[in-house]
């Protein structure tokens, strides 16, 4: 479908305007700085398989866990008008369960890996249900409710494996965290696509998207229309738990070990920013999953760009913060409202000029 300027700026800012503009600006900046920044080549990995390489591949691959978490965070934000700050700690728990099951098995095969993932998913969804209960039943603000798991989650992950950081080496896990033999695209990127399709199908065949937006906009009105706000909020946290499990298992498969202290450390802040940059309101209501995924890729593109410019790792966060603050401010309701008025004024002036010319 062709996207015209009129559609993009209809009624001022469209919901995807900010992420699309941010991607365009980053692309132009990198092409000016290094014309070959977005070139894609063929390389051979340690197993001798031909795989795609280049900055674009590094960006979409490196942002995979963040993109998956942003999908779930979008639902929680839309339904509850708040954010879950425990996703990094919950991912460490899911990763620890994943490793615990694999280490307990006599041999690691496809069935064992699937079982380990399903069990880690169940555990992560249970912790999500715990957070959701605090928010939906006890009416605790989401950021405060999830602060509990944020504080103790990595300690729980530490206890699951008895304080150890066990390593796991297996071709199946290497394929999950890297490349499937014969497929040049990184497996985590494929998993992101699969997750996005699953949520798209979920929204298509159910009314979850409409119910979530209704609860986020006005829970009391949604209740009067037969929607159960408590259930929708609880479900959003449970679905986030599934995303947390997928991200944690990918992180473990990349490293070949579980380190409860560093696995997806500080990812919760990036997940919240991805939702905001994606044009979604942090106060709840209307949302677009694709916007949050684009937000994750914008954050990763910015990170890769800064590293390419030889910015030290200690300074990267400061530069990212400056750029992200600008993006969030530009996408704020105040700026959107003023821009909308400006666009309407220009449109009215153009019509007046055209009317005078016709006379």
Could you give the count of β-strands? Answer: 2
Give the low-pLDDT segments: 7-12
Task: Tell me, briefly, the overall form.
Answer: globular
Q: What is the tally of helical segments?
A: 17
Could you give the order of the helices and strands?
A: HHEEHHHHHHHHHHHHHHH
Write a short abstract of this structure:
With 359 residues, the protein is mostly helical. The chain has helices at residues 5-8, 17-33, 55-62, 64-80, 87-104, 110-136, 142-145, 147-160, 171-177, 187-205, 208-217, 219-224, 229-255, 267-277, 289-308, 313-330, 333-358; strands at residues 41-44, 50-53.
Give a written overview of the molecule.
This protein is mostly helical. It has one domain (12-36, 65-325). The chain has helices at residues 5-8, 17-33, 55-62, 64-80, 87-104, 110-136, 142-145, 147-160, 171-177, 187-205, 208-217, 219-224, 229-255, 267-277, 289-308, 313-330, 333-358, and strands at 41-44, 50-53. It has a two-stranded antiparallel sheet with strand order 1-2. A hairpin with a 5-residue loop joins β1 (41-44) and β2 (50-53). The two termini are 38 Å apart. 41% of the residues are buried. Mean pLDDT is 90; it is low at 7-12.
């Amino acid at each position: 479908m062709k996207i015209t300027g009129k559609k993009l700026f209809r009624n001022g800012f469209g919901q995807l305007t900010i992420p699309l503009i941010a991607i365009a600006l980053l692309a132009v900046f990198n092409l000016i700085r290094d014309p070959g920044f977005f070139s894609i080549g063929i390389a051979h990995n340690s197993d001798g398989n031909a795989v795609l390489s280049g900055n674009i591949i590094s960006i979409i691959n490196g942002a995979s866990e963040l993109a998956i978490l942003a999908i779930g965070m979008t639902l929680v934000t839309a339904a509850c008008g708040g954010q879950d700050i425990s996703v990094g700690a919950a991912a460490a728990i899911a990763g620890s369960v994943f490793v615990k099951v694999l280490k307990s098995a006599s041999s690691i095969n496809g069935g064992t890996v699937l079982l380990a993932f399903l069990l880690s998913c169940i555990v992560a969804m249970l912790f999500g249900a715990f957070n959701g209960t605090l928010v939906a039943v006890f009416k605790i603000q989401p950021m405060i409710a999830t602060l509990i798991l944020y504080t103790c989650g990595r300690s729980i992950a530490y206890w699951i494996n008895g304080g150890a950081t066990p390593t796991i080496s297996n071709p199946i896990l290497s394929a999950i965290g890297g490349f499937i033999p014969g497929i040049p695209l990184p497996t985590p990127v494929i998993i992101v696509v699969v997750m996005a399709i699953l949520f798209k199908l979920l929204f298509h065949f159910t009314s979850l998207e409409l119910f979530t937006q209704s609860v986020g906009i006005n829970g009391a009105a949604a209740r009067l229309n037969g929607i159960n706000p408590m259930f929708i909020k609880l479900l959003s946290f449970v679905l986030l738990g599934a995303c947390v499990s997928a991200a944690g298992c990918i992180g473990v498969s990349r490293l070949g070990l579980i380190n409860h202290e560093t696995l997806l450390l500080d990812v919760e802040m990036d997940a919240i920013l991805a939702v905001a940059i994606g044009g979604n309101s942090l106060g709840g209501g209307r949302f677009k999953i694709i916007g949050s995924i684009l937000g994750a890729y914008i954050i990763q593109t910015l990170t890769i760009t800064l590293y390419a410019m030889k910015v030290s790792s200690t300074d990267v966060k400061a530069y990212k913060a400056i750029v992200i603050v600008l993006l969030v401010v530009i996408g704020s309701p105040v700026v959107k409202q003023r821009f909308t008025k400006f666009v309407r004024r220009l449109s009215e002036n153009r019509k007046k000029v055209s009317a005078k010319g016709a006379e």
